Amino acid sequence: MAKDIEKRSSIRDLPGTINPPTGKVSRRGALKAAGGALGGAMLAGCAQAGTRGIASILDPEQSGKKDGLAEALDYPLIKSIFNRRSRRISKGIQSVPAGSCSYQSDQKAQALSAVEEALLISVLGMTGLVMPDRPFQDEKGNGILGTPNLNMTGRAAGSADNAQNTHFFMINDSGTYYLRPLDPPDQDFKLTPENLILRADQSKKKISDKRLDFPRSFPYYLDSNRFLSNLPGSTLFLPVVDFTEQYINGLMYLLTQPDGFRPVFLDDKNGYVPAGVEDWIKNKYLNPKISLPLGVVGTFRAQIEADLLLQNLMLTLQAMGLGGWIHATFEGPFLMGHPKYSVAGSGLGFKYVVPELSAEQLKKLGVPDPKFLANPVGLDGVIEGFCPPYYPTMSDAVDAVLEKKYGKGGAYSDVPRFNRIFKGGKGEAYTKEVPHYDPRTVQCVKAVCEYLHKTYGRFPMHLDAIYVPGVWLQAHHLDLKYYDQLFQNGYTRMHQQHEELWHS
């Protein structure tokens, strides 16, 4: 089957999706067979918020028109998966030196339109509400934790404990932007160009009038990327991940086990001593026979969401007929403005905290300069980690996580929201019945967090507070002539008809 797919015409795409001889996709058939890659996903998300049918997604007055947005919303998911490819050569690249496969072009760079950009932004955002479809009692009717989530709004991709700790920056010809998370759209929201652009404008926070860039050489750009990446006309989506909130939440989640099964957290950077939990071993809240080094705990899977959201973008590029690919971005220290690596610029200008450690501590850690341990904790007013200096102490940061979960309007205290999730008015009963964290769990986690920050001058110790996955996605208009000259199946019907659908 794979060979059959590759051999087929770049215009016909996959078998069974085109009505000959016109080459038009049967929109009803596509939706029935596989569901629109974008429209189907939006419908699933909005269903959680209580929205009604496809009329809430597609404007009835536009549903009969053949335009780019309607085609993208109807493009089948399975087809998008099988036709997904990295397509790197954009309009505006004048020369591709590659021996006998070289190419010259006089095409000008073409930036994304407002609606193209807005649709890409939308597939990174919130789509409705999630369901707490899990037990919160054991076999004997005793309470077990039923409140692991940090949010009850649903995003276009899943995350550990619905932490939604992936943040995106967008970079284009007009500058560098932070994409603020928005609440899910209203129940009557329609995916019209005007509505998409409005939400995109609400999301965008400009942090620079310039396209973020560095010298086009190593170590900033790798190999051929310097000829292809972050060029005029391109739009890039850059993820960064805040580990702090989910790290605190994950520690509490691990300590919700029954008596006798709660592990002792060990500091594997310091001879595997208990990580501030000696008193909790003595009072038998923790079981010394079960040890868990913090280096093993890792990220609590918080980094996975970024990869899933980037895949969303790739599938959306295919549905829209745009080119692009996921590739290496600037390394974290350059990108964020690390004090030891900011020779060529401060990047996004994140705040770094350099730990104040003694010479003995540095020697024990095998670190010659405390700047090597500098921790990116946030970007003031944009992304602020759950740690000092944004909170006076780590105990205050833990309290802030709890307030977000259980405080007024928090993830597990918003009764109107749960009434939208449950049938029969069960939302209020759920909020009253579902167990919260045991106070002992909270105090034990505070002890761990305080230990790490006081011992090492940073939180977390084994991870950066704000993490750069090291990849970004570029979206651009494809140079079809390049692919016509060199490849048998360089692009699909959506790419061939992109200008007609989106720009005529």
Defining key terms:
seven-stranded antiparallel beta sheet; alpha+beta; 14% strand; 34% helix; three-stranded mixed beta sheet; 504 residues; 21 helices
Question: Can you characterise this structure?
Answer:
- With 504 residues, the protein is an alpha+beta fold.
- The chain contains 21 helices and 17 strands.
- The strands form 5 sheets. Strands 5, 6, 7, 8, 12, 16 and 17 form a 7-stranded antiparallel beta sheet that branches. A 3-stranded mixed beta sheet has the order 10-9-11.
- A hairpin with a 6-residue loop joins strand 1 and strand 2.
- Helix 5 crosses helix 12, helix 6 packs across helix 7 (193-203) and helix 16 crosses helix 17.
- The longest helix has 18 residues, at 439-456.
- It starts with a helix and ends with a helix.
- Mean pLDDT is 88; it is low at 1-35 and 40-63.
| Nearest-integer average pLDDT | 88
Distance from first to last alpha carbon: 36 Å
**Gross geometry:** globular
Strand residue percentage: 5-15%
Oligomer: single chain
**Contiguous helical run count:** 21
**Rg from Cα:** 25 Å
Number of strands: 17
State the helicity in percent bands.
25-40%
Low-confidence stretches: 1-35, 40-63
* Largest pleated sheet: 7 strands, antiparallel
- Based on secondary structure, the structural category is alpha+beta
